[in-house]
Amino acid sequence: MIRVLLADDQLLVRAGFKVLLDAQPDIEVVAEAGDGQQALAAVRDHRPDIVLMDIRMPVVDGLAATRRITEDPRLPEVKVVMLTTFELDEYVFEAIRSGASGFLVKDTEPEELLRAVRAVVAGDALLSPGVTRRLIAEFAARSKEPAAADALSGLTEREREVMALVGIGLSNEEIARRLVVSPLTAKTHVSRTMVKLGARDRAQLVVLAYESGLVRPGWLG
To answer: Coil, strand or helix: which one is 70?
Structure first.
């Protein structure tokens, strides 16, 4: 059973999501929160698998709440997906930097919401190639030089190659086709790379790929 916490200051948004999620045999909404402070308390009390977190909330906003969750060593398994009104939300970049596993627009199709919840719990990140382009563009604008790649010294050449492909937004299936290996092998390489680097998920691999200089602006065209 996938345990979900809904954090949004709009009651109708929470109610709509709850009805949809609770109707699924493998998903259960275990708690709700109307602001970031309530969300933090609920996460600590219920230890959900995933938090659907609105970016803009009173008391403590979604970005600050996400940072506190992802930095808490007692909550390593909790994944956060940010809820935004527009795909081009100016805070998407900061959301990923804060440790979010991705984002969803609030008017997403019901089937897409369900797929997203299951995908994030399975270890995937909700980062489309278009979002990845914007993230790397933001890094390029904000950073003068990439950090030293010492953090990648423990990776094999194949793991570096796989990390670079994750960094430009490829899925496991796309990586498998690029490297002419099975999807399971690609997934194994991704998982090992995440473990070695202490990354929570693929979204963090994208950040690390750029910060280390493994991925540079312009790779995505």
So the answer is: helix
Q: Tell me the C-alpha to C-alpha distance, in Å, between residue 199 and each of 72, 76, 92, 97, 141.
A: 14, 10, 19, 12, 23
The answer to whether 98 and 72 are in contact (CB under 8 A) is no
Q: Percent helix, strand and coil across the chain, each rounded to 5?
A: 50, 15, 35
Q: Is 201 helix (H, G, I), strand (E, B) or coil?
A: coil
- Residue pLDDT, tens place only, 126-175: 665 556 556 666 665 665 555 555 678 889 999 999 999 988 778 888 89
Instruction: Write the DSSP string, 76-131.
Output: TT-EEEEEESSTT-TTHHHHHHTT--EEEETT--HHHHHHHHHHHHTT--B--HHH
Phi, psi of 92 (to 5 degrees): -60, -45
Nearest in space to 80 (alpha carbons), one of 59, 95, 61, 58? 95
Q: What is the pLDDT of residues 20-72, one digit of tens each?
A: 999 999 999 999 999 999 999 999 999 999 999 998 888 999 989 999 999 89
Encoded tokens for 101: 């596993």
pTM reported for the whole predicted model: 0.71
